[in-house]
Amino acid sequence: MALTGIDAVTFGVTDMAEAKRFLDDWGVAPASATADRLVYQTRDGAEVIVRPRDAADLPPPIEDGNTVREVIWGAADEAQLQQTLATLSSVDNVRTGADGLPRVTDPNGLSLAFRVSRRKPVSVTPTPSNAPGSHQRVNQRSPIHDRARPINIGHIVLFAADFAAMRAFYTEKLGFVISDEYPGHGVFTRCQTVGAHHNLFMLNRPGRPGVNHVAFTVSDIHEVIGGGIAMSKRGWKTEIGPGRHPISSAYFWYFENPLAAPLEYYADEDYCTEDWRPGAFERKPELFAEWAIVGGIDGTTRRQMASRDQSGRGHA
Length: 316
Ligand SMILES: [Fe+2]
Fold this sequence. Notes:
The chain is α+β, with helices and mostly antiparallel strands. It has 2 domains: 3-116, 2,3-Dihydroxybiphenyl 1,2-Dioxygenase, domain 1 (Roll); 152-292, 2,3-Dihydroxybiphenyl 1,2-Dioxygenase, domain 1. Helix content is 16%, strand content 35%. It has helices at 16-26, 78-87, 163-173, 221-233, 285-288; strands spanning 3-13, 29-34, 37-41, 47-52, 67-75, 95-96, 102-105, 111-116, 130-131, 134-135, 152-160, 177-182, 186-190, 195-196, 200-204, 210-217, 238-244, 251-255, 263-267, 271-272, 279-280, 291-292. The strands form 4 sheets. A 10-stranded mixed sheet has the order 21-12-13-15-11-16-19-18-17-22, covered by helices on one side. A hairpin with a 5-residue loop joins strand 7 (102-105) and strand 8. The radius of gyration is 19 Å and the shape is globular. Fe (ii) ion binds next to strand 11, strand 16 and strand 19.
């Protein structure tokens, strides 16, 4: 498959200063900043781009409020990029933007752009584990992180206004591979046959397109926890987490933020090849989280917040 992952996500926001404050705390690296454009990078060079919501050159929003305005998908090289564009030739809205990037609009109305990826491979060794008879970490303490440093933008989750059309567009036109599915309700897809469990998860929400969350990979559960506690200590509000997803196996922690729907730290997701066997599951809360803390952990007391899940987001 021609695409390697998310190369950049562009957000349209009402408060640039507040978005900057959040991203400085989130642990992505500032790359450039002007009055109407902030660019941050994950460790692999994927870009978080923030623009004023009313910027005239932004693609139209797919929902009210602060949200994602565009996703740039990366290809390994020019030949792979051209392969993707060839598969899109049957899509009637391919166009070239002012920046020279080819673009299409997905059935949800979201702008997608494509480029040769600017991301660099990052190799991380997660903290080894010990168990009786299997000692992977010898004479070495397990780390406590004082903040997270996201490695990449691992996935985006979209509410699909026309679920069948979105599923067909991404799997048939763009070649995404189905990793797991809630038949008729949601589909986890990856952009490469051999790769992380999902780069794009789509949830059926008839007639109401939107963004459910955008997720940033960190090295392991310890960085999820340390990063989440650091965000809490800086006053950012947990949406839900920490917790663990049964589907994809990942540890997670979601935060409310001034950019869009929740942003997520996650680690230790399943890695798939052509031998991965997709599951078909009934959508239910137990499959969103094996366990989860609603409201998060207080960054000062290091104890869970007393809270109730009132997000209304569905958590699937
Ligand atoms: Fe996620």
